[in-house]
Amino acid sequence: MRSSVVYHAVDSHTEGMPTRVITGGVGVLPGDTMFERRQRFLAERDDLRTLLMYEPRGHASMSGAILQPPTRPDADYGVLYIEVSGCLPMCGHGTMGVATVLVETGMVEVTEPETVIRLDTPAGLVTTRVRVEDGRAVSVTLDNVPSYSHALDQVVQVPGFGQVRYDIAYGGNFYAFVRLEELGLPFERAEKQRLLDAGLAIMEAVNEQNPVAHPENPQIDVCHHVYLEAPGSTAQHSRHAMAIHPGWFDRSPCGTGTSARLAQLHARGELEVGAELVNESFIGSRFTGRITGPTTVGDRTGILPQVTGRAWITGTAQYMLDPTDPFPAGFLL
Ligand code: PYC
């Protein structure tokens, strides 16, 4: 066996969506904040992301997180989210996977019935509360970064669909919300390619015709997620298919998407502080979200979102790279 590198991983899934948690082998990434580390990682070490996420070690809807020492004194670990699509500022299902791995591998001091872990993420500090029974992480509740509704009732021109109405909100990433009834598309897994094509076309139109920027961090300036709302969804129980750049569906109910959904519903006057939302994914798995209070995001009115879900460890691995491997940065078909 020849290998120039070895990356240690604990693989997990959160309500169906994988998180490959890289626990060793990367070293400390340069940068004074996790956002700066993210920017430098994308510029200088993106081949490591693609090696760990793309085929043949990953696949077209892979997701992961690299553990780091924190850059701030109030956090226990730093987290860099790695995806097939790039490095997200924040990832809810990934955070639940990380918290579960930290508890079940004993990488944090575990207290029962609750273990609190503070994570330094590129989007800000995220506190997780892990419910622990007999050493097992039973559920994870995360206090996500402040979220806000960016705009309601926007319109874009989308090839094949004409004018499409949408709301857009931020919950650690930007999310465009579109009702499937308006697109005339059914909420069925058998129609997943048509749904994905529609989501990607809307995403492109939103980014071209109505670009976004976070009021406090203008470098967060892209909408790579489209929430295709299923018919019959309400402010208490919402079902959706989440189309994500460059072409996959979130298997989980999407933690940052749930946070953005809470902000959108609050801005529409449909969900009050304290009320709960059950958010259901395309495969039927669920997160519960709630608004814990009001806040501001720059000069915008925002909310403090909390999201609860579950994650399971699926395996451990050492990922290697043989110097003769013809695909040192992986590939996607
Ligand atoms: O859970 O926040 C999330 C997420 C983002 C992309 C995939 N999952």
TrEMBL record:
Gene3D superfamilies: Diaminopimelate Epimerase, Chain A, domain 1. Pfam families: Pro_racemase (PF05544). GO terms for molecular function: 4-hydroxyproline epimerase activity. InterPro entries: Pro_racemase_fam (IPR008794). Belongs to the proline racemase family. This is Proline racemase. It comes from Ornithinimicrobium avium.
